[in-house]
Amino acid sequence: MTAVLKRWPALAAVGLVLAVWLSLSLAPDAPAGQATPEAPAVELPAELAGFRADAWFLPDDGMLGFVEVPGGPFTMGSDRAVDPLAFDIERWSPTQAQGRVDVPTFYIGRYEVTGAQYAVFVRESGHRVADQGALTGRPNFPVVSVAWTDALAYARWLEQALRASSVTPAPLARLLSDGWHVTLPTEAEWEKAARGTDGRIFPLGDAPRAERANYQGPGLTRVGAFECPECPYGLADMSGNAWEWTRSPYQAYPYDESDDAASLDADALWVMRGGSFSDGPQNIRAAVRGGADPGARRPFIGFRLALSR
Domains in the chain, start-ordered, CATH in brackets? Predict the structure, then answer.
């Protein structure tokens, strides 16, 4: 695999643990979009509590699950003097542990994209399925075994569906009319949504709590199963459950938002965030970074959507 890795400094081996493990162990099973002949038929429930069957099984609220994250600066990256679990790849620069990034207002999904939501996309778009695992999970669990290319295709399809439909809530329709787009969150958007503006180590605070997130466990849980009133912006599963794709190419800090806008067609590793159900505390922190090939499909990789200008 070839990666676009700009400004990559010489790092200690400990700082490469996460990146090397992900980039080597998550090699793609099949080229993006390649179908397997045994891909199962799409089955959808007649209804699903908390979600709208008439609106692509998106969350049943006035913005179909999109939550506003106000614009403004936040602290990005990790200081090992404050967070001993931090990897070196989370350090801002050789002379600065963390950086301040000003992120414009955006919206992000309250939940990870679910199996039912992805199944509607497959049924209505004809998107070819390369891994049966994307369609065999429970309808209100995170969809997993989806590549970065699959996630981006879903986002683009949903944007067109929302623009064309009369069931799209008026506030959401206005944003789309004003030039906002459904996409994957950038690495900076994801981290701000996870940690807020107070520099916390975990989305729930400065220490992990087993009753607040699905980690060190046997498998996925339904989205939102773990309540986290301490988490910023009312978002669920920002720690654990499934790793989440972003639209940022994997490269060294300091973060540069211009790379996100210019790199969607690049041959790159792509940043994943948040950790999964099987990970320990070190990999479910708000600043943890992983990178994987865009064709990687694994039963612990999913995604959530963002709405950005």
Answer: 39-71+106-308 (3.90.1580.10)
